[in-house]
Amino acid sequence: MSEAFTHDVVVVGGGGHVGLPLAIGLADRGSKVAIYDINAATVDVINSGVMPFTEPGAEPKLKASLANGQLIASADPAIVGQAAHVIVVIGTPVDEHLNPDPNAIPAALADTATYFRDGQILILRSTLFPGVTALVERMVADLGLDMDVAFCPERIAEHKAMEELFSLPQIVSSRTDRGRERAAKLFSTLTDEIVHLSPEEAELAKLFTNTWRYIKFAAANQFYMMANERGLDYEVIREGLSRNYPRAKDIPGAGFAAGPCLFKDTMQLAAFSDNKFGLGHSAMLVNEGLPLYVVSQLEKRYDLSQMTVGILGMAFKGGSDDIRSSLSYKLRRVLKFKAKAVLCTDPHVTEETDPTLIPLADVIAKSDILIIATPHSEYRGLVIEKPVADVWNLLGNGVVV
């Protein structure tokens, strides 16, 4: 670390699911790290040694890094000027029409840029619409600063950060040799393998990765619908065709494909391809349409207008407390129009996040039909003497009854 800086790294927006695990990982590997987040309440929680969300294995490392002075969180933007490496975890947003806003990140950095200094490197971390790295480079150039810009996309899965930060290869990109070398040196403290790409290649690599997963989930969900409409269990078919057969081992199970990245990034790639990305749009129709499909299948057998439906699981993935872009809420909206009443529960989502949730036992007791929307392990093996729509096949019967 240069004597001109008091910290090795500052993570801008570091109180969230991407920034906080990264900050903890870097501090754990010896960097002196500051977290800057505009949410003062989140900053206070972090500085108390408590994770503001679920991330297995992170809290002990957080407490240790706070105790040894390797990590601090602040709501004061001036701390941005005190670190040699400025890592920004703001991603490109999409609007209500699913169009990405390439200028959102340069605009979001405008206030923070007041504290940028010569000798720093600005590292963009979250998903970027292709060309945004170049926009940020021009913004930095207009400031007249001797400051490198890099794009080093995060590649971790939520709830696996404390494992994957240290095991997965890290993509590093920068327009300059110095920027590439500085970013690679920093991330080499986390992982042994660095993959060098150009900024534009790295931007597409990140989008391709998430879109590929989204398309695979759409294929599985389409297969599920085909099997279900014939009264067949897709999971039985999948297990049979993939058993000891390497060319089918990556076929995923069916289920709600949601969360803050996959759908959004697929739509960003569609916008980048001049709206000719029919495969991506088809995947969106399948995945986003699965909640309505489940309800329509139930309507064929039951008068939902006279029934209470219980939804088990509101987080977007199993074992998570994260409800961002969860299709469980889309399912709830559909059912509120179709059913007599809708009850919801989740063992991980707190009352502060969603005060409408009630205990699992109450949902089971008061509902006429149940839908397992999130594959939490707590639901596996439940004995329920009522109809259950179990897309995830947690109970061993993946046919929508």
UniProtKB/TrEMBL annotation:
One Pfam family recorded for the sequence: UDPG_MGDP_dh_C
Domain UDP-glucose/GDP-mannose dehydrogenase C-terminal: 310-397
EC number: 1.1.1.336
Keywords linked to the UniProt accession: NAD, Oxidoreductase
Highest taxon above the source species: Bacteria
A biological process term (GO) from this entry: polysaccharide biosynthetic process
UniProt GO molecular function: NAD binding; oxidoreductase activity, acting on the CH-CH group of donors, NAD or NADP as acceptor; UDP-N-acetyl-D-mannosamine dehydrogenase activity
Family per record: Belongs to the UDP-glucose/GDP-mannose dehydrogenase family.
Protein name: UDP-N-acetyl-D-mannosaminuronic acid dehydrogenase
